[in-house]
Specification:
Layout: H1 10-19, E1 27-28, E2 36-37, E3 72-78, H2 85-95, E4 101-104, H3 106-111, H4 113-121, E5 125-128, H5 142-160, E6 167-168, H6 177-185, E7 189-190, E8 195-196, H7 205-215, E9 221-225, H8 232-247, E10 251-253
Parallel strand pairs: 3-4, 3-9, 3-10, 4-5, 5-6, 6-7, 8-9
Antiparallel strand pairs: 1-2
Helix pairs in contact: 2-8, 4-5, 5-6, 7-8
Length: about 260
């Protein structure tokens, strides 16, 4: 997700409930002009994923383009899965025949493996969004970055029943050369975005729709959220955006991998 003001204390509650982790808010400002905060310290790495014969390294550059081509649009959904909002997003995507990429937080995936499996069963792709969603990732040592990426990869893979995430999205876009290289070595293409719908800030459904329509020329990868609070506006906005984009001749695909 993009960086947002006002703090992200809900992750502390989720992580604490799931893993007994105390999450402290810290300030950061990277990539975008907004400020964001998130958990630190995080749980220690317990069983880091190791390279295997089925893991093929991918490009380290941050992906934005769509596999669907020039008129392709990539719907990306961050910070879940969430038991209230993820099912509603999945229902909408199914209704309009859209495939999306779900950037999952490790603790959320671990807490809701049934939802991770539903996402996979519906034909969507998975993305590693770290364990604790710390938007100061780029200010942390490499050991911390490694723990956050590899433990989340393991959590998501286990929750899915063995399907590995294909992408890595740094919280708040806080990529580093090291984190991109590490993710790519694990077969996870670093994933950016072109259009931040601003839905996390709950500016109103009309404002979310307007932001997407105004900024779509920036590129095909759109950022939405299915966790982190009341996502009613996100669901309502997607219900308007998805058919409208189809009517305008766009097709929905996945980010290049």
């Amino acid at each position: 997700m993009a960086r947002h003001g006002g703090g992200r204390g809900w992750y502390g509650k989720v992580a604490g409930a799931a893993l007994g982790v105390t999450v402290l808010a810290t300030g950061a400002s990277v990539w975008t002009a907004q400020a964001g905060t998130e958990g630190d310290p995080s749980p220690k790495a317990t069983a880091p994923a190791k390279p295997g014969h089925d893991v093929k390294p991918v490009e380290t550059t941050i992906a934005h383009a769509s596999e669907a081509g020039a008129r392709g649009v990539n719907i990306t959904i961050d910070d879940g899965p969430d038991p209230r909002w993820t099912p509603q997003v999945l229902d909408l995507l199914r209704e309009y025949g859209v495939k999306a990429t779900f950037c999952m937080v490790g603790t959320q995936a671990q807490a809701h493996p049934d939802l991770v499996k539903k996402v996979v069963a519906a034909g969507h792709r998975l993305c590693d969004h770290t364990v604790s969603h710390n938007t100061a990732m780029d200010k942390k040592p490499q050991s911390y970055q490694s723990q956050q990426i590899l433990d989340a990869e393991r959590m998501i893979t286990e929750a899915s029943g063995g399907v590995r995430p294909m992408y890595y999205r740094a919280p708040g876009g806080a990529f580093t050369p090291y984190s991109r290289q590490l993710a790519a070595s694990r077969g996870m293409r670093p994933l950016g975005w072109n259009v931040d719908s601003k839905d996390f800030e709950r500016p109103g459904t009309n404002a979310i729709v307007a932001t997407v329509e105004r900024e779509l020329h920036n590129g095909p990868t759109l950022l939405f959220h299915d966790a982190g609070g009341d996502r009613t506006q996100t669901v309502q906005a997607l219900r308007r955006i998805l058919p409208r984009l189809k009517e305008q001749g766009y097709s929905f695909g996945f980010p290049v991998h």
